[in-house]
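Below is a typical protein record.
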Amino acid sequence: MTEENTKGCGGGSISPATTSRVNVTRAEVARLRLGRHERRILLLAAPIESEDGARIEPPGPGRAADEAHRRAIRRLYRAGLVHIAITYAQVPVVRHERAVYGVPGDAMPLVAVERNWTYRKRVVWLSPLGSAIVQCLRPQLESGHPIRWDRALPVIVAAEDTYQLQLDAVNRKEAENREKFRARMAAMMAAFSK
């Protein structure tokens, strides 16, 4: 499977480091309940430093599992724990079709025809807050035990601040690289127009 394009919810190309949701308050984090689908997604999501997000498939077959999976991703996004985007994956599919040549009335041979089908897939990255929660609470997330937010909240807030500083540094570096690229392109366009 090859991925061609990644688009955010509003269209346009995105990077997980440049998209963010509204700030989540400590009270909202303390009220957060993580079910088994949410815990699974947090553990499987790609880290924020990753170029490509993680394409996480539903835990089981069927429409109910698909809907529970999508609902869990939406809940985590609204809580500010993950960033989401849409990617387009091309999957080669081999179909056997009847050949169009031959004598009418004869049995037409089957010919294997390979085509690429494009599917929309949702990809997920951890946000700075999501990374801090996974880092601090991995044993509880993996075991399914209840999370004691009152004990974990100070550690999560400190870890989130560290992640946020790293994220700000990445954003500044990306902005500098964009400006350098624009300056080079303007110089090349000026050179070619002469």
